[in-house]
Specification:
This protein is about 5% helix and about 55% strand. The chain is mainly β. It starts with a helix and ends with a strand.
Length: about 700
């Protein structure tokens, strides 16, 4: 298997050698510029990340580009605390952080404002992706406890710049983009940044050809040295058939080495693409006030439209007499490789989010101590409108993907419309207790109101809830570039019992489900070295249906024990002359505890690797020529909640070359890389989704190449 890869790398090396001999070269440089005004990071504090008592990582657009990452699911390549959570080609990205699923409705931000992540989010106009690990209650009224992901939009730069990029990926994907930033006006007070991107999508995965487009415009106006106005708008569209997952074959884990990772079971003649049409826009005003205070008003809107369609495999014989001596396989495929196939269609879905954040920040002297305060309020509204949907049995397929069934597109099922309003008041404070010691406080009070009703008017729910989430930390600089800290924080989730006759508490909201995280860490940060070592302990309440749940009033939906995730993380970002290393590792102990059903206690949640290691190393071979190597290791995980079947660990390596040359005033960057260098075959993840076990394989060895021209 290695010989074709070596041939590809040899060809790439030869190409770069020719360019090296033919062109004038310069030592490797990074061409970049700063926006006119930097906003606080995801954590809400303006301090450098190395001085904050929390774990957050910012992955720049350049770092994402070097790793070939074009969607959020690619973050799993770079950070050990981030892993997959049902990531299928052609669908939206879903992530785990510290073993907990991020909630795509509540755990994503765009320039700090809440957005809905139930769509394909474009990275074409993003300057960075930030990941805050834990303590999400400080920045979100309700959210899953693992943390937040924030998309940082590209803004006009201080210096004019234009970048053109062309790329190709093995299989037939071709992509192109333009990134142009310019300032104008008598005092260069106006800035404009344009991002255009288009791609013909044709990955090695069969039956997944599609397209993607992004057009984004960001502008700013420096009204005065004290006033900055920023506005931006983004339109993006992705149309591509999604990837169907494999599954367990009865009580057996299929051998990944015998499964073609290019096979897509969503390959019926009537298969239609999933279409995501997205519009994002924002307006932000930043104003300097007296006494080093600042005020900010930030309005954001998101309008999503989706056609969600799939030839969907789910279980076997769930609607028929069992063909396996009374054993039903409704949560996996049959032992003989057969599974039920459904025609799923939910078209013209609309998800709208509007958010307004107003805040002020600055220093205050209280009780002889300096306080750096931020006070503000966030108002957000979410509305989801759907039509009836199809989920109709079409026949029985097999894992070789050779069975053809007839479509059944009739809209036979109801969908659920949702409305949500949230009002949040927050305070953040950093108190200087001494030259080297600081206390940190975060407090957020949330008042929310949620309604839902099915498209036929049935099963309505309507409730309001108020919650307060605190966060506390203490940090101490033990040396010039070393910080030790301890923190404690709460997050909260809100859950309502479905309004169905089987429940004795139908339509009632559960008490606020508060998670708690304790964290102790050691951090360092210089121009050449950034690193951290962190120990964390997270407790999250769990809820489930208790009772027979097979007749009316036989079931209660309530809290039952908690999930406890304890772990240790280490990360390093090292830079040396001619190279660097970006690496992280996590050891996680995730268990269920405190359930009234003793058989559940001690179980490991499915699809959570206990050990992960990620590393990216780069080093110059010749002037302008750099070699890159990436390694990912994910330990074993379980495919089902009862821990009955384990999925083995896997390791995959990527390798690449980058060559930088100058041509007059231009800088040309050639990249060639091979993902999954050894063509490793393994189950990349084993999500438990919709009460069903799925398996997704590692993508096969894939060559990618690109040319970036900086004018």
């Amino acid at each position: 298997m290695a010989r074709p890869t070596l041939s590809l790398l040899g060809a790439a090396t030869a190409l770069l050698a020719v360019q090296l001999a033919a062109a004038q070269t310069l030592p490797q440089v990074s061409v970049s510029g700063k926006s006119a005004e930097a906003a606080p990071g995801l954590a809400g504090f303006s301090d450098p990340p190395a001085r904050l008592p929390m774990q957050a990582v910012s992955l720049s657009a350049e770092r994402l580009s070097e790793a070939g990452i074009e969607q959020l699911s690619g973050l799993t390549k770079l950070d050990a605390s981030v892993s997959d959570s049902y990531n299928a080609v052609g669908y939206w990205s879903q992530l785990k952080v510290r073993g907990f699923d991020l909630d795509n409705r509540y755990n994503l931000r765009r320039d700090g404002l809440p957005i809905n992540g139930e769509t394909a989010l474009s990275l074409a106009n993003k300057a960075a992706v930030e990941v805050l690990k834990g303590s999400s209650g400080m920045q979100a009224g309700t959210s899953a406890p693992a943390g937040l992901v924030n998309l940082v939009v590209k803004r006009p730069l201080a210096d004019d710049a234009t970048t053109l990029t062309l790329g190709a990926i093995q299989g037939g994907t071709v992509e192109a983009s333009v990134d142009h930033s310019q300032r104008f006006g008598a005092q260069r007070e106006f800035g404009l940044r344009v991002n255009l991107a288009a791609a013909h999508l044709d990955p090695q995965l069969h039956s997944s050809r599609g397209s993607a487009h992004t057009a984004a415009l960001a502008g700013d106006w420096r009204v005065s040295p004290d006033t900055l106005v920023e506005a931006e708008v983004e339109f993006s569209r992705q149309s591509q058939p999604s990837q169907d997952g494999f599954s367990l074959l009865g009580d057996t884990l299929p051998d990944a080495k015998r499964i073609d990772p290019r096979l897509n079971l969503n390959n019926q003649p009537w298969t239609l693409p999933v279409v995501f049409d997205n519009t994002h826009a924002s307006l932000r005003l930043q104003q300097k006030l007296a006494g080093d205070w600042r005020a900010q008003a930030h309005l954001g809107i998101q309008r999503l439209r989706t056609d969600d369609r799939n030839a969907f495999g789910f279980g076997l014989d769930c609607n028929e007499t069992s063909t396996f001596e009374g054993v039903y396989y409704c949560d996996r495929y049959g032992p003989d490789g057969r599974f039920d196939l459904y025609d799923y269609r939910s078209e013209n879905e609309h998800r709208d989010t509007t958010a307004l954040d107003i805040s002020a920040s600055g220093p205050v002297q209280l009780a002889g101590l300096r306080h750096d305060l931020t006070v503000g309020g966030l108002s957000s509204r979410f509305k989801a409108r759907f039509q009836r949907q199809a989920y109709n049995f079409t026949g029985v397929d097999t894992i070789d993907g050779n069975v053809v069934t007839a479509p059944q597109p009739a809209l036979t099922g109801e969908n659920t419309n949702r409305d949500e309003r949230s009002r949040e008041l927050y305070l953040r404070d950093r108190v200087a207790l001494g030259a080297d010691t600081s206390a940190w406080l975060g407090l957020r009070h949330t008042r929310l109101h949620r309604e839902s009703v099915r498209t036929d008017g049935s099963r309505a729910t309507d409730y309001s809830q108020s919650v307060t989430t605190p966060w506390l930390a203490l940090s101490h600089a033990i040396a010039a570039d070393w910080l030790v800290y301890a923190s404690w924080g709460q997050g909260v989730e809100s859950e309502v019992t479905p309004n169905r006759p089987r429940y004795v508490n139908a339509g009632q909201a559960l008490p606020a489900l508060k998670s708690r995280q304790t964290e102790i860490g050691l951090k360092t940060g210089t121009q050449r070295v950034e690193g951290s070592l962190t120990v964390f302990d997270i407790r999250r309440p769990l809820w489930r249906d208790i009772g027979s749940c097979d007749v009316d009033l036989s079931c209660e939906h309530r809290t039952d024990g908690h999930a406890r995730h304890r772990g240790i993380e280490a990360s390093a970002d090292l830079k040396w002359s001619g190279g660097g290393l970006f690496a992280s590792a996590q050891r996680l102990r995730a268990r269920r505890e405190g359930s009234a059903d003793a058989s559940l206690n001690g179980l490991v949640p499915p699809n959570v690797p206990q050990t992960t290691v990620k590393a990216q190393v780069r080093h110059d071979l010749l002037p302008g020529l750099q070699a890159q190597l990436g390694v990912q290791y994910e330990g074993r995980r379980y495919a089902t909640p009862d821990n009955g079947i384990a999925v083995p660990a896997w390791t995959v390596a990527d390798a690449g070359l980058r060559y930088m040359q100058t041509a007059g005033q231009q800088t040309w960057i050639w990249r060639a890389a091979v993902d999954n260098l050894t063509n490793r075959r393994a189950w990349r993840e084993a999500p438990w989704q919709f009460e069903h076990s799925y398996l997704y394989p590692l993508a096969p060895r894939t060559l990618r190449a690109s040319l970036e021209v900086r004018l």
